[in-house]
Structures are given as structure tokens and as C-alpha cells.
Design goal:
Elements (H helix, E strand, L loop, with lengths): L1 E10 L5 H11 L3 E6 L5 E7 L4 H10 L5 E10 L9 E4 L1
Parallel strand pairs: 2-5
Antiparallel strand pairs: 1-3, 1-4, 2-3
Length: 91
């Protein structure tokens, strides 16, 4: 299990991307959060097990019906200092 930070590029703000992704990830019992960034991208910080990585990426790349994901960049982070018992949208 690792904590990851993902940045999603494309048409991902104002198209229900955060809501769609957060609901899909909650159903799959991932832990973390999703939020819009000022530059028009979306950030996701989440706990992902190795066996679930492909499923997680599929949800991020699919997005909402109105969204269009151009790219997803990610990195492993060592300093995820927050508590969550599910997946949340941050504003």
C-alpha cells in the first residue's frame, strides 16, 4: 500500500468530474480526497494498494460523461498527514 498524489489534466473542472470520481472511489472503498486546483487541473491524494492501481487509474481516466482526461501524472508521497475513513471532495 502506498499513498499517491495524482494530477489530472484535461476538461476536468465544471463537468462533475470530482463528484463522479469520488462516488466511484467511495464504492470501491478507497481512502483519500479530490480537489480542484487553481490551474484548471484536479488533484487526487489516495491510499492505493498495488493490486488496485489499474482499477484506480481506470476511474481517473474515465471520469464523468462530460469530462475529457488528457493525462494523469502521479507520484508516491511519504508524508500524507491526514485522517480519513473514506473518500471526500475538498473545496
Amino acid at each position: 500500500m502506498e499513498w499517491y498524489r495524482f494530477v489530472i489534466f484535461g476538461r476536468v473542472q465544471g463537468v462533475f468530474y470530482r463528484k463522479f470520481v469520488s462516488q466511484a472511489l467511495m464504492k470501491k472503498q478507497f481512502k483519500g480526497y479530490i480537489q480542484n486546483l487553481p490551474d484548471g487541473t484536479v488533484e487526487v491524494v489516495a491510499e492505493v494498494f498495488d493490486d488496485d492501481f489499474d482499477t484506480f487509474m481506470q476511474v481517473l481516466n474515465e471520469g464523468s460523461p462530460l469530462s475529457s482526461v488528457d493525462d494523469v501524472k502521479y507520484e508516491i508521497i511519504d508524508d500524507a498527514e491526514f485522517q480519513t475513513d473514506g473518500f471526500e471532495i475538498r473545496y
